[in-house]
Design a protein that fits this description.
Helices cover about 80% and strands about 0% of the residues. It is mainly alpha-helical and about 80 residues long. It starts with a helix and ends with a helix.
């Protein structure tokens, strides 16, 4: 898939996440799409299968490692208001 398709998908996910509060799923998925777009644009990821594999791996790692941090940070911010 061309890099700009991954970029559009990533930006779309981040914008949707910003417009509606949620569990930071779309933000993380969009960020992973942007990383795949960057790697694809640099020529590192040539095949669609490899792009999807990297996307799934990045999404899994980010959901396990980053989502709890983002949820805690959002909870702290909402308590301060």
């Amino acid at each position: 898939m061309p890099w700009y398709v991954w970029g559009q998908l990533g930006i779309g996910c981040v914008v949707v996440e910003l417009l509606m509060p949620g569990g930071h799923f779309l933000f993380l998925f969009g960020s992973c799409c942007l990383v795949v777009a960057l790697l694809s644009g640099l020529g590192t990821l040539d095949s669609v299968g490899l792009q999807l594999t990297v996307l799934v791996a990045l999404a899994g790692v980010s959901l396990v490692l980053l989502r709890p941090l983002l949820v805690r940070r959002a909870a702290r911010r909402s308590q301060k208001r």
